[in-house]
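Notes, p. 3: input format for complexes.
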Amino acid sequence: MASSKTMASLLSHVILDLDGTLLNTDCIVNQVIKLSLVKYGKKWDGKMAHRIVGKTPFEAAAAIVEDYQLPCSIEEFISIITPTFSDQWCNIKALPGANRLIEHLRSNKVPMALASNSPKLNIEAKLSCHLGWKESFSAIVGGNEVEIGKPSPKIFLEAAKRMNVDPSLCLVIEDSLPGVMAGKAAGMVVVAVPSLPKQAALYSSADEVINSLLDLHPEKWGLPAFEDWIEGTLPIDPWFIGGPVIKGFGRGSKVLGIPTANLAAENFSDLLSDHTSGVYFGWAGLSNRGIYKMVMSIGWNPYFDNTEKTIEPWLLHTFDEDFYGEELRLAIVGYIRPEANFPSLESLIARIHEDGRIAEKALDLPIYASYKDSPYLATSLQQQSNCQ
Ligand code: ADP
Ligand code: RBF
Ligand code: MG
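Output follows (388 residues plus magnesium ion):
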């Protein structure tokens, strides 16, 4: 779960990083690098992503040329990949919670700046694809506007200077390690939102490590609180997934006494990269059986330290039998919390039951209840019953 080590301080300004913090740039970066390496007969290993996150384009290109021993100079490699990147800028999606955060700070008149290692022109091109973003920042500092990029504090100090505020009053939100180091070196409070999974331990210098922007609580830092949480839940734009129930690790019922009807995560890799891991809830439609309240976890189950991401919906209903292979359809309508580690199995089980109670109650609120009638949940149910 989120760890925080600084006591509440009264901050007044926010400085945001762009790539990996507000934008899901990694996905496009991976695609572009993969394609360009093919030209050299090399295969991109996604596990090398940590070598480029948070670096300037030159440093990132240098790391790839070196790691893959490419027969070209760093400059040549940059000139090959740059046009491909430029074509893709408007395909970079906002990360979960990014629009919500920008809108919240703007409407509460909290001055905010953007500080990115990317050149200013690239930043502006990326921002122009997201309605209302550019106007929300009172300062935008690009990597080309300071002598040296992150991890040097210069870029953040320049952002504070342009906002006319003391660095100690700024909250930095950053996904990368160099960015966190830069923010701390600038004397600022830093909340880290690591973009790669299972990295939280590396970010010990940050004042708080959170899983996604949905988990940011600005009031901890003296900034206005979000007001969209309702009874311990956060409404989200609903998303819909479904498929046959598959076998999981076989420990839901056995170890926890909580069965989870797993869906095959690999079938939803695109959708899952648009959503963070965490505990969500919504409605579940099961062919021939009905529509039920549901609470679920998506992620790596930190308590068990899984290497694969799983989708684990617990239907809040008692069934007399298993339903492996049956079509399960989900309307995911709200968020509860990030996945967490727990000191004991009992405390994990207690927390999951608490999630169940929260979901059970929230789903009666009109904002969530209406999705019980989503045609998606019932389509296969009706089709099947018509054929009988
Ligand atoms: P696995 O690891 O194979 O998913 P579990 O112990 O988690 O095994 O049990 C999940 C199975 O239990 C589901 O696939 C489903 O067939 C059945 N099941 C029974 N009741 C429920 C419920 N309330 N919610 C989810 N699955 C249930
Ligand atoms: N696993 C974790 O390791 N940490 C969690 O915070 C966590 N939260 C869960 C919340 C809900 C509502 C459900 C249904 C499961 C959660 N799990 C969590 C996953 C649980 O460990 C998993 O379902 C079992 O290990 C079965 O594979
Ligand atoms: Mg299961």
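Confidence is low (pLDDT under 50) at residues 384-388.
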